[in-house]
Write a structure and sequence with these properties.
With about 180 residues, the chain is an alpha/beta fold. The chain has six helices and eight strands; from the N terminus they run ααββαβαβαββαββ. The strands form two sheets. A six-stranded mixed β-sheet has the order 1-3-5-4-7-8, with helices on one face. A two-stranded antiparallel sheet has the order 2-6. A hairpin with a 4-residue loop joins strand 7 and strand 8. The chain starts with a helix and ends with a strand. The N terminus is likely disordered.
């Protein structure tokens, strides 16, 4: 934003405007971000780190980034996982292939992409005190695994099935485990 301000006030400096546009094109678009997190939690990694690690990967432009407030549906279940220091998903990459609308599928849903293939990347919160260690684990193991997972999407027939890669953090061991799920 400030780059545009500088380029507007200094017309001879068009390079700054081009740099700003390039930075915006390399950033992932955030589809969803929870409005409020408890003070004890924070997201382990920032969009800039994710974008820089995954830019240049196949289907990077189609990835939709979301920052959730819980890796499971019920927040009480997530609170139990945190309280008992049980492993949970901190980063999930998912591909859902395009599907055909059923008999009851509306034209509106079809026009708005409800049946299109989707690429999502979901980041879940961690305890504030564990943020730096989880961020380091994600940068060393998680994001390279996601980049490899995206690279494997170029195989013939890959886009016809459901695929998911989960980065599971174990708080007691401070380890990250990768789980790959390939479905029907």
């Amino acid at each position: 934003m400030w780059l545009k301000y500088l380029s507007l006030h200094n017309p001879s400096n068009i390079a700054l405007e081009m740099l700003d546009e390039q930075l915006q094109s390399e950033m992932m678009r955030i589809r969803y971000q929870s409005k409020k997190l408890p003070k004890t939690l924070m997201w382990p990694i920032q969009p800039k780190s994710i974008s820089s690690a995954l830019s240049g990967s196949p289907d990077f432009a189609d990835l939709q980034l979301s920052f959730s407030d819980s890796p499971v549906f019920f927040k009480s279940e997530f609170q139990r996982l945190l309280r008992e220091s049980l492993p949970y998903i901190v980063l999930k990459a998912e591909y859902r292939p395009a599907s055909k609308p059923g008999y009851g599928g509306s034209n509106w849903m079809l026009a708005h992409g409800f049946y299109d293939a989707t690429w999502t990347l979901q980041v879940n919160p961690v305890f504030h005190l564990l943020q730096t260690s989880v961020e380091l684990l994600l940068q060393q193991q998680g994001l390279p695994a996601v980049a490899d997972w995206l690279q494997s999407s170029t195989q013939i027939g890959w886009d016809l099935r459901y695929h998911r890669l989960e980065c599971v953090f174990a708080p007691t061991l401070s380890t990250l485990t990768l789980q790959r799920i390939d479905g029907a």
